Amino acid sequence: MFGKFWYVISALVVLMLVVSACAPMPAQPAAQPTEAPAAGAAEPAAEQVTLTWAFWGSPEEAVSHKQVADAFMKVHPEIKVETWNEPWDNYFTKIQALWASGDSKTIPDIAFLWPTPKYAAEGVLENLDPYIEKTGYNLDDYWPGLLESAKYDGSVYGLPRDIEANILYYNKDLFDKANVEYPDADWTWDDLVAAAEKLTVKDAGGKTTQYALAMENNGKYDKWVNQNGGGILDDMRNPSKCALADPKSVEAVAFFADMLAKGYAMRDADINQAGGDAGAFQSGQAAMIIQNTSRVSAFNTANMKYDVAVVPIPEGGKRYNPAGGAAWVMSAKSDNKDAAWTFLSWLQSADGGEKLYLERGEIFPALQSLAKSPAFMTEQPPANKQAIIDEAAASGVGTFGYFPEWDELNGSIIQPGLDRIWTGEVQAADALPALCEQVDQFLKDNGFPKQ
Amino acid sequence: MTAPAAPTRRSPFRWRTDQQWEGYLFILPSLLGFAVFVFLAVGASLGISFLDWGLTGSKGFAGLANYREMLRDPVFWRACTNTLFYIVTIVPLQLGLGLLMALALNQAIRGTEFFRMVYFLPVVTAIVAGAIVFRILLARNGPLADVVSGLGRLLKLPLSLPDLLASTRYSKWSVVLLTLWKNTGFTMVVYLAALQGVPRELYDAAHVDGAGAWQRLRNVTIPLISPTTFFLFILQTVGAFQLFTEPFVMTNGGPAQSSMPIVQYIYLNAFRYTRMGKASAIAWFLFIFIFGFTLIQNRMQRRWVHYEAE
Known about the structure:
The complex is a heterodimer.
Chain A: H1 2-22, E1 49-56, H2 59-75, E2 79-86, H3 88-101, E3 110-113, H4 116-121, H5 129-135, E4 151-152, E5 155-156, E6 158-160, E7 167-171, H6 172-177, H7 189-199, E8 201-202, E9 208-214, H8 216-227, H9 247-261, H10 268-273, H11 276-282, E10 286-291, H12 296-301, E11 306-309, E12 321-322, E13 327-330, H13 337-347, H14 353-359, H15 368-371, H16 385-393, E14 395-396, H17 406-422, H18 428-445
Parallel strand pairs in A: 1-2, 1-3, 9-10, 12-14
Antiparallel strand pairs in A: 3-13, 4-5, 6-13, 7-10, 7-11, 8-9
Helix pairs in contact in A: 8-9, 17-18
Chain B: H1 20-48, E1 51-52, E2 60-61, H2 65-72, H3 74-105, H4 112-120, H5 127-138, H6 143-155, H7 171-196, H8 200-208, H9 213-224, H10 226-241, H11 245-250, H12 262-272, H13 276-304
C-alpha cells in the first residue's frame, strides 16, 4: 500500500514537471482573463464603426440600456453599439481583467464605472478634456461638485449619469397615526429626534416593533457629519489628515449613534433582515427612510401614501448631499475614440440618452436642466419634487475620497472603526480620536499629502 | 485514510514501465488542468508577492515591501488573531462533538440510521444557503431571540439572547456555530467508520479485566481510533485556516473586522483594494504557516497516534 502511494505521488510530480516544461510560459504572470472576446466580434461593415459599451445591472436594466443604444444608432447610423454586461458583483473584477489583458479588441470602448478617479489614476481611462474643448460640450449643466467625482488630476475622465440625491421619505399613515406633523424644510435635528420619539413603537420587553427611521450604510453618516460642518478627511482629493475627531464631526456621529442606541433608527443588520430600507418602509417597520431617488418607482407601484422632504439639518448647519454617481468613461485603449466621444456626449445630453433614462424612471439626472424640465416635474408622486432638487443643489465633496487608496482606507480602517460606535460598544468621543490616529498613519504610509 | 506504516520500500527505478503509460494518459486531462490553473497560478502568485501591482496599473518591483507592510498592518494581525481563534475553538469542538455523536449513534438502538442522515444533511447543504439561514436565525430580532426571550417570560427569568451577529464580542462565536453545524456531520461519519473497525474482542477482554465504560473508552476506543483523530485533526485545522465563506456570507467579517478571517483579508486586498502584491504576500505567509504546522503535527503524531500492526 505504501509503495503504491509513493508511486502515485512520484508519477504526479514527474508529469507535472514534464507538462510545465512543455507549457509555454505566459508573458505576464497570473490573472489572465479567460473570457472570450466581447459579444460576437463581428467585423464592422465597410464604413460602420463598432463600439463596445459596458454596463452592470439586472436583465431589466440591460433592456433599457439596449433601447438607449437603439435610439442612438437611429440618430447615428454610422456607429454600431454592441453591449457587454455583467451583474454588479462580477462587473468590476471582469472589466479589470479585460484591461489587464491590454487587448483593445476585447476592452469595452465605453464603460459605466465607479469610482472614476481610481481607474483614471491607473491610466486605463481616456482624458476627456480635449474632446470637451473641441466640441464645446457644456459642463456647467452638471450639479455642483458632481464632476469632482469624475475628475483626476484636474481633468475630466468621465461624465456622471446620475446623482445621488438623498431625501427623507415619510409614511403619511404612520405620521397621522402618531399625530406627528409632516416634515418640512424647516425641520432641524431636534425636530427629527422629537418626531422619532413619537414614531417609535416598542413592545413590553422594550424591543422596537416600529422604527422611526431606517437608513442604510450606517445612516450614511457622512451626511450628518458634513451637514454639521465636520468632515471625514481635511481634503477629499489630497488629504493630509483625518477630520473625524473634530468636535463637529464627533457631535454628528454621536447624534446618529444615539438614534440607534435609543431604538429610533434601525441598525444595518436589522434593515437587511427586513429586506432593505425599501422593505422596512413598505412593511411599515420604519416610518421614515433617508435614501436616494431609486426607491420612488417601487413605492409608486405599491401605491404607498408617502411624500418626501429635505433631510433635517442641525441648528446652524447646512444642507449637504454627496456629489457622487457612476459615470460613463472612455477606455484609453479604444480604437475608435472619436466615435466613442460622439456616443458618450450623446448619452449625456438633455435630449439624448439621459432623457431616455429619466423617462424610464431610472435616474435622477446629472444634468440640472433636465431635472428642472417637465420630464422630471411630473404629476407622479412624490408631490414634493422640489425637495429632491434642493438636496441635489446642495451637493458637494465630502463622502468619498477621490484618490486610488480610498477603498482600502475606508474599507479597512474607517468603516470598521465606526462599526464599534454604531454597535454602541464605544462612544464617539472616545473612539474617534483613536480612529483618526490610524487614518493619519495610513495617510503617512501612503505618502499623503501628495504634491 | 490512515497513513499506513512503512513495511518495505521499493526502489522507484525497479518499477515496471510497461504498465505506466496508459495510467498517465488516464490522469492527463485533469493533470493538465491542475498544471495550468493551480501549479502555474501558485507559482505566479509567489512572483506577484514581490511586485507592486494594482491589476491594471504598471507593475513595479517592490522587493520585500509587501511582506514588510503586511507585518506592520494591524488589520492583518487582527485577521490572524481571528483565524487562530477559529482554529482553537472549531477544531476541538468539532472533534469532540463528532466523536460524541458517533459514539451515540454506534449503539444498537432503533433509529440510528435516521439520525445519521439528519446529522449528515448539513454537510451536503450549500454553505451559502446555510449561512443565510443562520443569519436570519441568529439576528437580533430573529426567531432564536424570540424563543429565548419567550422562554425567559415563561420561567420568569431575565433571559435574552445577546446580539450574536452585530457585536464584536459574539460575532466570532456565530461563525463557530455555523461551522460546527456544517462540518460536524462529516467528523461523525468518519468516526463512525473508525469505531466500527475497533475489534469487538478488545472490548470483551477489557470487560473481563473489569474496565468500566469510561475506562474502555479511554484505554481502548480512543487509542485505537487515534489515526482517524489525526487525520481529522489535520483536515479540520487546515480547513479552519482557510475559513472564508461562512464569515463572508454571514457577517461579512464584521462588525469592526471582529469576525474577519485571514482569507477574507486576502480577498479584500486582491479584489476590492486591487493590491495583488500584498494579497499574494499574505497568501504565501498563510501557506508557510499551514505547511509548517502540518509538518510539526506529522512529527508529533508518534507520541499519540497508534497504528495497528498490519
